[in-house]
Design a protein that fits this description.
Rossmann fold; 5 domains; seven-stranded mixed beta sheet; binds adenosine-5'-diphosphate
């Protein structure tokens, strides 16, 4: 045999087959037998094999470690043309080449000449000859010898055996087919096997088996059992290959399908191009197309619509993308681009409408009329003010907005900004998001259907900013007339002109309006109503509208003044009229119930009847104190829900001169307290306060209702008064409230929100009020009856505050043991 023909040989089925065929004809025939003893056994040298399992009639290449004994054995056998015995260690036995740890069956084989092409790994071909049972192992001169007995293959003509052989051949054929091995010769060769054992060996060597299974096959001396084993292994292999094939065809067919679809789509679009407008037959698309044509889109939007329409036509109808495209086009078609209502800028009409819907609110109404006058004179003013109505809930902001829309004959919509913290809520999500839509501005535009509605953006002070982008800056783009003619919505992608829309914003307080927005806004204050005004609003508006709402139109029911007054004072606590309206509604609902029961309705609702309709009185006028107290004075604060009276308490106790302020007090108010204390210190001589007094005592200022955060300088004079009262031990007059900032030298500075504060004082039953002299003009905003209900004193200096506030002239009369004693000794001196 010429080794060069075979090296190097990839060990595949084909090569093995060639080799084994060759082996049958030459090497095996040329081999000399060992000397056989009487019992049929013979002795031959042993080569321990590890990773390779030889079968009779097959050839397997094996590479050797150049220093191993195997080289010597192979060379010896080659030269003498004899065989070797391949033995296997029992994998279950412990390691080491103890002779007893050998598997009971081995293989007699013929080695070829060594090929030394790779000196690091010389190779030889090993040709299996026959199975041998290992009877005995012995060692001579370092070589292991085995006495073995050849195992005969038994022929069998039993039907079962034949059937089994035929089945295996059939399966082997299937296996070769699945393996994509077109070597019919291999199958022919297998068919030539005469015994089940031979067939098993041939197929077994051809299969891609685990070493463990190969060894099992070698060890199985009985041919039929061996073929049974092969049949099982074969069918497992076939299963695996079939599964592989199935997966493969699946992948393939998917690829084929998408290729086919692509191809078809291309063909369709080519054909459509040929015909001009292929899918125009689709009625939905036709309708959309017509709608878009009628929508009067501006150039940029028109181009986008055309592009997307073309895409839509070339798409399979049921693809998800076509749904998204249709949706987009629908939005383009539905948004108002040109449709508008005719403005009514007749100022007299507007004035009449506003007056007929709203009591008071003179300032706001005047400003609106001015605004309309400018509009009618100069319709295309580029820089328009952004109006912002600021005031407590229920002060008529939204309803005034609605009336303006009525007066101007514009459509009206409201949009609350409370809790909006994501820019996308204003501007929408990009179309790439699933389920994306335009933002709320464009949604509102679609709802009103014209380009020039009046939109109220409520609660602009409740806008939140967080990681989701800045809604305030998006809103600025909406409101600012220099930017909003090309508002960019993420979904729409093309600019949308908002410049014809009139936006009015509302807020409860200016404090939390994002500064960038506040900067551009023109604030119109809604200051809240005095009790008298509330009663007028009730008579003119709330009662008639609630009567109508509760089906009592035309009934002669009258609320007495006392009753309305009692509802305002006992059942509501607010600057606006929202809960007032609700309580009136409650009374009327109860009457409606009576009416349906056929009972007689009372002609008058009196104060005494209220508990039966509304339950017990809920609020009691928060009079500052019931008697004149030391160290307690009443400030009037301004909050989001209007004004509020706010007692300030001061306690003086032995300590080290510390000032403590509690009750959720903001920084400005803390500084104001410091200033008040410093003022008092500076006056200690005047008030005969001993020098070291401020070092020996601690001062605690507390502003109750600790849960409500408070800030601002306007409680300055109140804190100074309470401190002075506490230190000097002189009580403060009850029924006195005050507001004003204090400077270190005791000057009283003006403050804001006078109207709300006065109204709050009136609500709380305050009889006298101290106001900074510079705020006197603010009282003009108040109705005469409110001004008359309270006695106002205007102050410029803290001395005046003390004069009005303390029940007696400040003299040193504080009961302070330490000081008193000292004073006495001084006197004694
Ligand atoms: P806001 O928007 O300031 O919270 P609304 O406009 O919703 O207040 O007003 C609450 C209710 O009070 C509405 O029914 C409104 O008609 C009524 N109202 C408020 N102020 C007036 C007013 N000056 N004249 C007539 N009704 C008023």
């Amino acid at each position: 045999m010429n080794d060069e023909d075979f090296f190097p040989f990839p060990l595949n089925l084909e090569n093995q087959f060639k080799l084994s065929k060759f082996a049958n004809f030459e090497e095996l025939n040329a081999v000399k037998n060992h000397k056989v003893s009487k019992d049929g056994s013979f002795t031959a040298p042993v080569l321990f094999l590890q990773n390779v399992v030889l079968f009779p009639s097959t050839i397997t290449p094996l590479s050797f470690n150049p220093k191993s004994q195997g080289i010597q054995l192979v060379t010896g056998a080659q030269e003498q043309k004899t065989t070797l015995i391949g033995c296997y260690e029992d994998p279950a036995a412990e390691t080491g080449k103890a002779l007893s740890k050998c598997l009971p069956v081995g293989i007699e084989f013929v080695p070829s000449r060594l090929n030394n092409e790779d000196p690091g790994a010389p190779m030889a071909l090993l040709q299996g000859r026959r199975r041998v049972r290992i009877l005995e192992l012995s060692e001579t001169q370092g070589l292991v010898f085995a006495r073995v007995e050849p195992l005969k293959e038994v022929r069998s003509s039993a039907k079962e055996t034949k059937a089994l052989m035929r089945l295996c051949l059939k399966q082997f054929g299937r296996y070769l087919e699945l393996e994509d091995n077109s070597q019919d010769e291999i199958l022919v060769f297998a068919e030539e096997a005469e015994t089940p054992g031979e067939l098993a060996d041939f197929i077994g060597s051809a299969l891609d088996l685990e070493q463990e299974d190969r060894l099992k096959l070698l060890l199985e001396a009985d041919g039929i059992s061996r073929l049974n084993l092969v049949a099982r292994l074969l069918s497992a292999e076939i299963n695996l290959l079939e599964l592989e094939e199935h997966i493969q065809t699946q992948v393939q067919s998917e690829m084929d399908r998408s290729q086919r679809e692509n191809y078809l789509r291309e063909q369709i679009s080519k054909m459509q191009k040929e015909i001009g407008d292929g899918k125009s037959a689709d009625p939905e698309i036709l309708e959309l197309q017509e709608k878009l044509a009628a929508a009067g889109l501006p150039t940029e939007a028109r181009a986008a619509a055309d592009k997307e329409l073309a895409r839509l036509r070339s798409m399979p109808t049921l693809s998800p993308e076509s749904g998204m495209l249709e949706n987009y086009l629908q939005w383009l078609a539905d948004l108002p681009w040109n449709a508008k209502t005719e403005d009514n800028l007749d100022i007299n009409n507007a004035s009449a409408v506003l007056d007929s819907n709203h009591y008071g609110l003179k300032k706001a109404k005047d400003r609106i009329l001015e605004f309309m006058a400018v509009r009618s004179l100069k319709p295309t003013r580029s820089h328009q003010p952004i109006l912002c109505f600021v005031g407590a809930p229920g002060t008529g902001k939204t309803s005034l907005g609605r009336s303006i829309a009525t007066a101007m004959a514009r459509r009206f919509a409201r949009m609350s900004l409370g809790g909006v913290h994501d820019e996308a809520e204003i501007r929408g999500h990009r179309r790439t998001y699933i389920g994306s839509m335009p933002g709320r501005i464009l949604q509102t535009m679609k709802k009103v259907g014209v380009v020039n509605p009046l939109i109220m953006l409520d609660e602009i002070d409740k806008l939140n900013a967080d990681f989701q982008g800045d809604p305030a800056s998006a809103l600025l783009e909406v409101l600012d007339s220099e930017q909003n003619f090309e508002f960019a919505d993420h979904y729409l992608e093309v600019p949308y002109d908002l410049s014809k829309t009139l936006f009015i914003t509302t807020a409860n307080s200016t404090q939390n309006i994002p500064p960038a927005l506040l900067d551009r806004m023109e604030l119109i204050e809604f200051p809240g109503y005095a009790a008298q005004e509330k009663m007028a609003i009730a008579r003119q508006f709330l009662i008639p509208s609630q009567m109508a709402e509760n089906g009592l139109e035309g009934e002669a029911i009258e609320f007495t003044d006392d009753a309305l007054q009692a509802i305002i004072e006992g059942y509501t606590y607010e600057a606006g009229v929202r809960s007032f309206e609700r309580q009136i509604g409650t009374v009327l609902r109860k009457l409606a119930l009576k009416k349906t029961k056929g009972q007689v309705l009372p002609a008058k609702i009196k104060k005494e009847d209220l508990p039966t309709y509304l339950g017990p009185v809920e609020y009691f006028p928060l009079v500052a104190e019931l008697k004149d107290e030391i160290g307690v004075a009443t400030a009037v604060a301004w909050t989001e829900s209007g004004g509020e009276i706010m007692p300030v308490e001061v306690l003086v106790m032995p300590g080290k001169g510390n000032l403590q302020i509690t009750g959720q007090i903001g920084e400005v108010m803390q500084e104001s307290a410091q200033a008040a204390l410093s003022y008092l210190k500076s006056k200690s001589e005047l008030f005969l306060i001993p020098d070291d007094f401020f070092e020996d005592y601690d001062f605690h200022i507390h502003v109750p209702e600790g849960a409500i955060p408070k800030d601002g300088p306007s409680a300055g004079i109140t804190m100074a008064l309470a401190l002075t009262s506490a230190v000097l031990g002189v009580p403060v007059r009850r029924e006195l409230a005050m507001t004003g900032e204090i400077t270190l030298r005791g000057k009283v500075l003006p403050i804001g929100g006078v109207r709300e504060k006065v109204l709050a004082a009136q609500r709380s039953g305050i009889k006298t009020m101290l106001l900074p002299a510079k705020n006197e003009k603010d009282l003009e905003e108040l109705q005469a009856n409110v001004r008359e209900a309270i006695e106002f004193h205007f102050v410029e200096q803290m001395d005046e505050v003390l004069d009005y506030g303390l029940v007696s002239k400040p003299i040193f009369s504080r009961v302070m043991p330490k000081q008193r004693k000292r004073k006495k000794t001084e006197e004694e001196d």
